[in-house]
């Protein structure tokens, strides 16, 4: 009874071509049990229907699988519905042959259990993507993965990132290979698209022609929603995976993390008695590259400099560093007690290199404006920063900074985190390793597709970022090394 109804449901929800493969696969498997299932998948032609072919010219919306075409959550067999092979697991406590537990079928892979983050009641953002599970096949968990980097990377530094065009980027996972060779697309478990090198509008002629169902197309974007990006509407239902600074991305592309910070300290070593005021003769520094701006940070800084001295450098101030001089910024920053790590937008979890690299890694206290305090509490080392929201006004902040300037002990207290790591630091080893780990661990039959990438990235009603404050359009100007702000309507 149960099994007939299961089969019926199964046939209804599986696209016909997949069912065919499934049957075909088992026939083949019987004939040649040693065949690698991955080889077989590559022969699947049906995936080609998923992508518009070259002859289609510009893609019609109908070509894009829309939500109706994708099996919706109810149609997809739930893990509980899939008949489990009855195995009597020996009790580990009194069985010496624990190693000999019979192999469990793939569908009981814990990685394939439905994830709470995909449940709209738990995560409202999950309505912006679809998740389904392909029928359980004997597709093994991935034990090695290939990632093709399809676009150039953000600063056209592909040669630096992959000197030989191909290689392992994550030392701890040598079985995870990145390649810039586009002809390896058929082997790819994932294809990386860096957003600034994508065409603004979806253009099939510059995207891979081949796409098999196991392959993840990855949207990689390091900036917050305020930055220029692709025209989202044309890229609906194209990407399976996101890499952004946000922790709920499919894999993290954060600019820094607790894990990496404490790893770095392990290598560098920490002197618990170090006096961090030594060699710092100057008070506060701010590097800013966008001078015409409505950003909240300018209004705040304008007020702040009325009460304390801040040196302002950057493209619109005094240019002090040549673009590719990597020692220049640290040389300057380490002369200061405070670094204004003011982000250009207040977005959830948006902590950039200003915080991690410019301030924290240079042993200078970051004064932060951007994400909410609660985000910093979760993501940053404890008591390592000064958040502007803790002060009633820029004037009060200025008073506090000038107080710390005179109080060596209080100043040094902002570096105690180095010897007091928080408990349970999440694993976050940088973008390359994060991607490898997630790909290797992901349920092999799980499928995901961003049907509304804009909604996911900006949040419903753009809730991911606070709106710009209603300040007049401003322009930074400089007068005798001090900056002032000219407002004009
Ligand atoms: C698509 O990209 C190709 C190659 O860059 C370009 O020649 C063509 O004009 C683009 N099509 C559209 C509609 O932008
Ligand atoms: C880089 O910047 C440092 C510090 O400002 C300076 O001393 C050095 O000469 C610069 N190096 C180059 C190659 O310009
Ligand atoms: C910051 O917190 C406030 C109050 O909880 C909230 O309304 C706002 O959306 C949050 N902003 C961001 C960018 O997370
Ligand atoms: C990615 O999306 C495509 C297009 O809908 C789909 O065919 C494929 O199975 C998805 N891949 C994964 C790994 O989710
Ligand atoms: C977004 O805005 C719409 C229309 O104003 C409103 O109905 C909806 O509840 C809002 N959603 C959220 C999550 O605030």
TrEMBL record:
One of its GO terms (molecular function) is alpha-(1->3)-fucosyltransferase activity. Pfam families: Glyco_tran_10_N (PF17039), Glyco_transf_10 (PF00852). Pathway: Protein modification; protein glycosylation. It is found in: Golgi apparatus, Golgi stack membrane; Membrane. Its EC number is 2.4.1.-. The keyword Kinase does not apply. One of its GO terms (cellular component) is Golgi cisterna membrane. This is Fucosyltransferase. It comes from Branchiostoma floridae (Florida lancelet).
């Amino acid at each position: 009874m149960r099994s007939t109804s299961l089969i019926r449901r199964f046939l209804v929800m599986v696209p016909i071509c997949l069912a065919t493969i499934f049957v075909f696969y088992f026939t083949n498997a019987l004939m040649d049990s040693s065949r690698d299932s991955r080889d077989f998948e590559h022969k699947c032609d049906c995936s080609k229907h998923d992508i518009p072919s070259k002859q289609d010219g510009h893609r019609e919306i109908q070509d894009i699988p829309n939500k109706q075409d994708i099996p919706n959550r109810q149609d997809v067999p739930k893990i509980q519905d899939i008949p489990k092979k009855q195995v009597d697991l020996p009790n580990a406590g009194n069985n010496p042959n624990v190693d000999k537990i019979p192999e469990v079928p793939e569908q009981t892979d814990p990685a394939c259990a439905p994830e709470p983050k995909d449940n709209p009641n738990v995560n409202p953002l999950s309505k912006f993507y679809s998740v389904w599970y392909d029928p359980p096949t004997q597709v093994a968990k991935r034990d090695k993965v290939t990632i093709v980097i399809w676009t150039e990377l953000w600063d056209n530094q592909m040669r630096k990132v992959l000197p030989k065009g191909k290689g392992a980027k994550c030392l701890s996972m040598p079985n995870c290979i990145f390649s810039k060779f586009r002809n390896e697309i058929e082997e790819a478990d994932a294809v990386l698209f860096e957003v600034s090198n994508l065409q603004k509008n979806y253009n099939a002629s510059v995207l891979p022609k081949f796409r098999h169902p196991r392959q993840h197309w990855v949207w990689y974007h390091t900036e917050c929603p305020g930055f220029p990006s692709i025209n989202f509407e044309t890229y609906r239902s194209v990407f399976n995976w996101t890499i952004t600074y946000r922790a709920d991305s499919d894999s993290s592309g954060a600019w820094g993390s607790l894990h990496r910070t404490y790893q770095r300290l392990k290598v560098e070593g920490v002197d618990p008695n170090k006096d961090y005021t030594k060699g710092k003769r100057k008070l506060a520094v701010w590097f800013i590259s966008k001078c015409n701006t409505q950003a909240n940070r300018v209004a705040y800084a304008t007020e702040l400099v009325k009460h304390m001295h801040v040196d302002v450098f950057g493209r619109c101030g005094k240019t002090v560093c040549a673009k590719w001089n990597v020692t220049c910024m640290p040389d300057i920053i380490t002369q200061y007690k405070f670094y204004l790590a003011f982000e250009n937008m207040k977005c959830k979890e948006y902590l950039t290199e200003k915080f991690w690299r410019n301030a924290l890694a240079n042993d200078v206290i970051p004064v932060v404006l951007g994400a909410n305090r609660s985000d910093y509490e979760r993501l940053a080392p404890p008591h390592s920063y000064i958040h502007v929201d803790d002060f009633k006004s820029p004037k009060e902040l200025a008073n506090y900074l000038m107080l710390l300037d005179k109080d060596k002990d209080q100043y040094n207290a902002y570096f105690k985190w180095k010897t007091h790591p928080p408990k349970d630091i999440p694993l976050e080893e940088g973008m390359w390793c994060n991607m490898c780990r997630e790909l290797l661990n992901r349920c092999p039959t799980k499928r995901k597709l961003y049907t509304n990438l804009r909604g996911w990235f900006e949040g419903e009603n753009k809730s991911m970022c606070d709106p710009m404050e209603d300040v007049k359009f401003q322009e930074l100007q400089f007068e005798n090394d001090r900056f002032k702000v000219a407002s004009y309507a």
